[in-house]
Amino acid sequence: MKKTLFSLFLLVPFLICSQTDSRIYDIINAVSANRIEADVTALTNFGTRHTLSDTVSQTRGIGAARRWIKSQFEETSKACGDCLEVFYQKDLVKKGDNQRIVHDVMVVNVVAIQWGARYPNRFIIMSGDIDSRVSDPTDYTTDSPGANDNASGMAGTMEAARVLSNYKFDNSIIYVGLSGEEQGLYGGKGLAAFAKTKGWEIIGILNNDMIGNIKGVDGVIDNREFRIFSEPVPPTETEKERNARRFYGGEVDGISRQLARYVHKTTQAYMPELNPKMVYRLDRFGRGGHHRPFNDAGYAGIRIMEAHENYSQQHQDIRTENGIAYGDVLEHVDFDYARKLTAVNAINLASIAWAPPAPKEVKIGGIVEPSTKLQWSMVDGAVGYKIYWRDTTSPTWDYSRYVGNVSEFTLDGIVVDNYLFGISSVGVNGHESVVVFPNEILR
What we know:
Keywords: Hydrolase, Metalloprotease, Protease, Secreted. By secondary structure, this protein is of the alpha/beta class. The chain is built from eleven helices and 17 strands. The chain folds into two domains: 324 residues, Zn peptidases (Aminopeptidase), CATH 3.40.630; 80 residues, Immunoglobulins (Immunoglobulin-like, Sandwich). Helix 3 packs across helix 5 and helix 3 crosses helix 11. It is globular, with a radius of gyration of 22 Å. The two termini are 44 Å apart.
């Protein structure tokens, strides 16, 4: 026993200091463009997946589509020894709730949970949207293949489940197809409310909405860049928290922004051929996505999507006008690009699911002193902690120091006035929690 413990003691620093985990590369290599293509094709073949479309047909409409998605999650679960719990989560939306709800509709999400072994009540979520639409958002009968928007994100979510089902994790992972996005983000609202009733601790949601287009309406063709949208601070922050930012900073350091930085950092470490672009905005200008309802509920949430959109292929009737082909059809999806962005999701799900919880309390001090003092609450499963800091104008955590299994540390010679700081917890396998920005002042 002593020899085993001594060997583990020697191994822990190596794991912490190592920059990569070889399993992450295995995950990247396991993601299949062919399987994503097959799934996107199957989803487009349902004709329309409009939220208000047919639910009885076995071949057309959103009912057939969600039953097929559920069957695919169930096949994945069967292959891994029933490692996924698959179910529908439903909410009734009444006619007239908004102008796009022209008749009563049951908004149905398809949920697959891969339960964590150590922290089963902590969840990291990957989502895609089931529904599609044409030019008229109330037209629920016209063909609406929705190949990129958003069969690509839904197929990516299903593929991530297939790949990650081969691994065991400490935290739980949810793979979900959300409905009602085009009618008012109803699926996200329903699942966020469901999580509240269950008392789930949501680490964050990676919302995938359009991950397959590389030819932008701006004329750019790019199969390496993608965008990560995140809002700066939670809409649920208190007046006290808002006022404190005037004196202590944190205008761009909310929980969603930290999740965005995590994805950015992990992608650069394991997939350096990609160019993740953080966009400091909740979503595209004046538009929305299914991470927003989770933000509204106080959870971290980001949107992962292509860098260059083509608006002639979104929310359009299939037609040709003035030599321009309109419509969200299969031929516009680049499946290798969708594979890359699916892998981005998968490696971040895995990294977070293998990491210990983040410290809940982080205190900072150092007013009129030539040093910065930090204290934090220790967490179960962490073998140490890492302090991050950056220039106040930098978008990313540029400096870090592993400080061991302690609950406080003083950075001598680093003046608190000139930097922003955060703390992450580190697991025995080297995976880290999302960074936590200080939420209390040391007096």
